[in-house]
Amino acid sequence: MAASVPMPQATGFPAEGRCSYYVEKKKRFCRMVVAAGKRFCGEHAGAAEEEDTRKRILCPLDPKHTVYEDQLAKHLKKCNSREKPKPDFFIQDINAGLKDETEIPEQLVPISSLSEEQLENLIKKLRKASEALQDALNDPKNGDSATKHLKQQASILGNIEKLKLLGPRRCFIEFGAGKGKLSHWVDIALKDAEKVHFILVEKVTTRFKVDGKHRKKNSVFERLQIDIQHLCLSKIPVLRERKLPVVGIGKHLCGVATDLALRCLVETYAASCEERNEEPLAKRIKNDKTEKEINTLAKEGNEKNVPEKWTPVAGIVIALCCHHRCDWRHYVGKEYFRALGLGAVEFHYFQRMSSWATCGMRKTSLEASTITAKRKDNQNDDSEEHDDGGYRITDDSTNSLPGLLTVEEKKKIGHLCKLLIDQGRIQYLQQKGFSPALQYYTDPLVSLENVLLTALPNHSSSPETTA
Q1: SS3 (DSSP) at 207
Q2: Which is higher by pLDDT, 25 or 466?
Q3: Alpha-carbon Rg for the chain in angstroms
Q4: Residue 272: helix, strand or coil by DSSP?
């Protein structure tokens, strides 16, 4: 690194206590805090004349930062990019599904490269496969929740309550938790319910988390930084030791993450609980509780919101999102597709075409700004929103399709693709012993991704019929 610091013309001075190195690419001074008596941060210390004898090199773990060559060994032990020990609940690809390379061709051309005949054949297959579907989403009863709850979080919460999943002695697992806002509102709705545990699953580090602000004695928040693909719930101490019924929740769980979460809940976790041949609940309680506590628990067990029978997964409530980011290997509805005479190739194109429901139309700049402004007026203040309002082109097919389809036809086809993919998830849950349903949960002006997937185990009391 150069021994002298490049200084711009008439750019002022670095802020007090900040590095004096001028970053030419960013046209500003480095903003890192410096040690007392120093002019430069550790990254740019090589620019100082008094330290120019020490050589800085790129970190072999992450070339985005540098380190003194004579301190490399020490740095590698504490570098944030080093591979950290895997927790017990990490099991490689446990929720990934089987990989069948023979079903997926090496190269699939973009939709824009398909001939008119090929595209027509795909759409015919889609419509034929969709004929058997009863689109419960169009039932007017499903609009009640959206009308009553104008905010997404409130609507999801209302559906959790309607399914009688709010109650004591539960573990709510929020997949793709982000800042943890959904769990935050569930916790508020639970009021003083006892022994409630929240596990927030997010694969990346998240800033401005809200779960750190909770101080209620009856609720415990635990955050796991892990990809859902590798998450084994049965290895998490609180679930292994306390046998809390799990409620899986998620707001805008992108594409493949929904399939991974479903498999994580109803396949790997539920199956592991059955294999362990759990003791009856009363026997487990008696081992650890006094007679008075047992009587209290028995009394509480008759309350409205306490399940009569313990189950590993008490319910699932997931707001679906981004079907164009689904993946055949991880998709839980393969069996459903195959029964319709469809496979990996059709799934690939339907998955891409699903974006037409929200992203397949181009608006003029005036139309886009006007409608976007209206949506923002109704939008819940949530930076974790995944849909893009339908105005940013995300599929290479939008401007290159043969002149077969109008904008409205493309929207309908996109919605059919989404419904077909979701129907595979519905069948999967049915086969795993659940009663699933799809419904609209909010107005499209609030979010274009406005479909909610819910499921209860078959032995539980049936939810209020909405379809």
Answers
A1: coil
A2: 25
A3: 27
A4: helix
